[in-house]
Amino acid sequence: MLDEFVWGRVSRISPEAPVPVVEVQAESSYPGGAANVARNLRPFCASVLLCGVVGEDPFATKLRGLLSAEGIETGALVATAQIPTIVKTRIVARQQQVVRVDREKNRGAIAEVTDRAMEIIAELMPSVDAVIIEDYGKGFLCQTLKDRVCSLALEHEKFLTADPNPGNQLDWSGVDFLKPNRSEAFAMAGRMDPGAADDPISDAALLDVGSLLLKKWNLNGLLVTLGEHGMILFEKGSPPYHTPTKAREVFDVSGAGDTAIALYTLAICAGATSHEAAEISNHASGVVVAKLGTATLVADELVASFEQDGK
Q1: Structural domain containing residue 66
Q2: Domain of 74: which CATH number?
Q3: Which of 208, 258, 300, 309 is catalytic?
Q4: Cβ neighbours of residue 197 under 8 Å, at least 6 residues apart?
Q5: What is the dihedral of CA 190, 196, 202, 208, to 10 degrees?
Q6: Is 258 assigned a catalytic role?
Q7: What is the pLDDT of residues 71-106, one digit of tens each?
């Protein structure tokens, strides 16, 4: 999807209605949704291949241009006239979002789009190190597509991670690793969230949900992001591992989950242990939430975060 930002200032209330008048000072656009995962990977990777669906419209052209400018390969994007490119426009004044305008039409999965995507993914699979499935619940990712990707990844022995959306009730069996946030984890487990405990390691409800999801889909690992409480990692046969938040300032949490799944997957592929990968993911997320907009980070910022933390 395309993320647009309109930056401005508010100096008066409209005479037409009790709403603020935003005087526009700047505008910017970024690749959003699953494309933001690719943006988070790009500074650390020789190449990133992005598969998804876009419309046949000027927004798709703009999105392709932005991706290409960041060195992200767009040949795997599937275009269709049946679904317009998703655009989210945020109007921001004084570092606060005033309103968001969404342009989208969720038509659900389209068989010919799924088949075309799988043809491309099958061609690319032998050349990649890992596969990340990022589900924004917009209709492209269906059970058939997920299952076929899992089968290919298993065949080619590729590490497969996923960031789920509980609104899209998929069976996640076959993925190696899942990264929901707290509310998503409880929703997928079918449990009510009683509220977070001060210490996640002592949070009985959270620990129960983590154990349940590991068993439900036979996962090797589950990383639950906890906002101000950091992250907690669940693994088969190991006690939960908690890493407190590394964020020093929080301006905008949009896209932080994209950063978390991107850097965890990257770290594992680079040879990190699961605990090291969780720490890297946590530090990276702490960097991006201190930025406004759909933000990413570079290696120097990640290293600086570890240095400031004394690690």
Answers
A1: 1-10+23-128
A2: 3.40.1190.20
A3: 258
A4: 203, 204, 206
A5: 0
A6: yes
A7: 999 999 999 999 999 999 999 998 788 999 999 988
